[in-house]
């Protein structure tokens, strides 16, 4: 029997759970917390809620909001300086995937010397990290449960993937209420990211029965609730199901890793300040088409999870319908379908393909790829 390894933080899920953050910090022994967030979360009022809860718990705190999308190496290094000056003893991240990835990278640098780029790859961390509590506000990245932090190397214009069990937060607080302040564009983009996490982790070479159950539920929830979540900012039922979808997709990919969509998406995102989910939306159907041959049975499952009822067809036929259903969802919610729409320059295809081939996510893609296969997939997506 193969060995299965499965890791998870403590998870607190439910409306208004954001107000439990102060107590969570106390339980972890913190007394002076470093709160990483961004301007959008500050404006939406969620940072105030976190601060209020910390004050009620009698904690000292410092806020740091200098994080932008696709977080940069110099931003997390600035975060370390402020953390050390403030003599904090725990890190809270409140925001989307960029903010949470940055918060985890700051936690890493707070006890480990050098540049953030020294930690690119698997298990490079040498010293234990301070306690980490993450509050996702976008129902997308899954970073609140994952062992990854994706940080932009601004010199080389590439996204670095840092992987370590030390980056799995101690506590993830998922409060679906926070999703009501999200813009429609962000709901579309992060929703497709969740679908991509579900699909890529389900067909990953590292998938196990422990990850499949979460990946399947995430795919099914996205199929049922992403459209209504995009249609209304205040549809709480849809938001709650999308928060669960995001969490379960995060649990699945934290343990099964991802595939070619993410490897290619990281290569584009390293060069252009485009939302990660927007790039995934364009690449996902093309990569699915390429990967279908590797696992028609699982592709057929995806079709049934997305609503196919006819069981009298072959797995290959059902798998093709899965791709059609994904395309239909992308079209219905108005997600981007061509890289040229996002002003990506096609003269960079060769370089981006080389970068994608060497991304850690490519190792678990179910079908073998080469640079020329990636180039063809990029050209199809143009
Ligand atoms: Fe993603």
From TrEMBL:
Pfam family name, one: Fe-ADH
Keyword Oxidoreductase assigned: yes
CDD domains (alphabetical): Fe-ADH-like
Domain Fe-containing alcohol dehydrogenase-like C-terminal: 187-382
Record-linked SUPFAM superfamilies: Dehydroquinate synthase-like
Domain Alcohol dehydrogenase iron-type/glycerol dehydrogenase GldA span(s) in chain numbering: 10-176
Gene3D superfamilies, A to Z: 3.40.50.1970, Dehydroquinate synthase-like - alpha domain
Record GO terms (molecular function): alcohol dehydrogenase (NAD+) activity; metal ion binding
Keywords (A to Z) from UniProt: Oxidoreductase
Xref: InterPro entries: ADH_Fe/GldA, ADH_Fe_C, Alcohol_dehydrogenase_Fe
Family: Belongs to the iron-containing alcohol dehydrogenase family.
The name this protein goes by in its record: 1,3-propanediol dehydrogenase
Species whose genome carries this gene: Ureibacillus xyleni
């Amino acid at each position: 029997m193969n060995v299965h390894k499965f890791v998870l933080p403590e998870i607190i899920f439910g409306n208004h759970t954001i107000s439990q953050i102060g107590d969570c910090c106390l339980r972890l022994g913190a007394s002076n917390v470093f709160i990483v967030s961004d301007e959008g979360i500050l404006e939406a009022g969620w940072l105030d809620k976190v601060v209020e809860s910390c004050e009620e718990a009698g904690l000292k705190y410092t806020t740091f909001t200098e994080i932008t999308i696709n977080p940069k190496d110099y931003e997390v290094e600035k975060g370390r300086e402020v953390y050390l000056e403030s003599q904090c003893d725990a890190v809270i991240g409140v925001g989307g995937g960029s903010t949470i990835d940055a918060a985890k990278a700051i936690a890493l640098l707070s006890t480990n010397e050098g540049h953030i780029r020294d930690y690119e790859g698997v298990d490079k961390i040498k010293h234990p990290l301070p306690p980490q509590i993450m509050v996702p506000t976008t129902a997308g990245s899954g970073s609140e449960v994952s062992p990854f932090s994706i940080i932009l190397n601004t010199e080389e214009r590439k996204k670095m993937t840092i992987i370590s069990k030390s980056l799995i937060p101690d506590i993830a607080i998922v409060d679906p209420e926070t999703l009501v302040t999200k813009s429609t564009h962000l709901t579309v983009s992060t929703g497709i990211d969740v679908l991509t996490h579900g699909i890529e982790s389900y067909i990953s070479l590292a998938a196990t029965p422990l990850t499949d159950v979460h990946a399947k539920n995430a795919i099914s929830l996205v199929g049922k609730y992403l459209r209504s979540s995009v249609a209304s900012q205040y549809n709480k039922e849809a938001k709650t199901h999308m928060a669960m979808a995001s969490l379960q997709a995060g649990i699945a990919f934290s343990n099964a890793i991802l595939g070619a969509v993410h490897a290619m998406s990281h290569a584009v995102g390293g060069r252009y300040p485009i939302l990660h989910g927007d790039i995934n939306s364009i690449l996902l159907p093309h990569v699915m088409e390429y990967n279908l041959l590797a696992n028609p049975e699982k592709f057929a499952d995806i079709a049934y999870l997305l609503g196919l009822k006819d069981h009298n067809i072959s797995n290959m036929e059902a798998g093709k319908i899965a791709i059609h259903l994904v395309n239909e969802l992308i079209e219905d919610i108005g997600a981007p379908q061509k890289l040229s729409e996002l002003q990506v320059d096609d003269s960079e295809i060769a370089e981006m393909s080389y970068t994608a081939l060497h991304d850690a996510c490519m190792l678990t893609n179910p079908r073998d790829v080469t640079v020329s296969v990636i180039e063809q997939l990029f050209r199809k997506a143009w």
